[in-house]
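Following up on my earlier thread - several people asked me to post the actual chain instead of describing it. Fair enough. Here it is, all 270 residues.
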Amino acid sequence: MRASLLQIAVDEDESVDSRRRRVAALVREQAGADLVVLPELWTTGAFAYEDFGREAEPLEGPTYEVMAKAAADAGVWLHAGSIPERDPDGPLYNTSLVFSPSGDLAAAYRKIHRFGFDKGEAVLMSAGREPVTVRLPGTVLGVATCYDLRFPELFRGLVDAGAETFVVPAGWPERRRAHWTLLARARAVENQAFVLACGTAGTHAGVPQAGHSIVVDPWGEVLAEAGPDEQVLTVDFDPGRVGTIREQFPALKDRVLGLRPPRRPDGGAA
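Reply from S.P.:
Thanks for posting it. Predicted structure:
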């Protein structure tokens, strides 16, 4: 399987419409790949909080239309990153779109773990509730977004739903780049799955981005890693390696579920 991760630079001087057209052209250039992946909130920038409401769009809005056509033109599975989605009932969501090679919407995932604690995305957007998997020829994708990477229980749930390859679009900041690489490798090793993590480049809303999109195999080996600037990272990988590693080193079979919470030192429940 060939995957191309498009590490897009979000330039505040470039309009959203111009960036959509530019990125659609980049997607079309990946004809021959099996899967193309875009970053999180590449239309606005993940830290451009003031733009979320202004640039929010319905699920089947401008980004949906442009990316569906680009996927069909290139004949690729396209994880089109995420958009600020405005639900018809009013709430905003950080929503990922996955298109089939015919341009049909295969899945939409509303980000479950919102970043920002008491500001930014955490207060401006609502949380998704449903983990999402997508079956491709040869592998099952588990879909997660950026901050989700810090929550291993989500990835365990995706494995239980059949995921063999995790796709993680992100707008990860440079100041925590070491965590980005560490967590991508950890999610790969503990779940014996491929991780395709695609970030943004450049600086937006005053926040330098980590870049360094990365592809990790189920043994934790880095197959490819981008630099800090806008780049197309293309890698060939064998999805069958997941089954081989899970059979040769069957750690997932030794999971112990339903453990009681530990007791506090004073004897009470934790």
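The radius of gyration is 18 Å. That should answer part of your original question.
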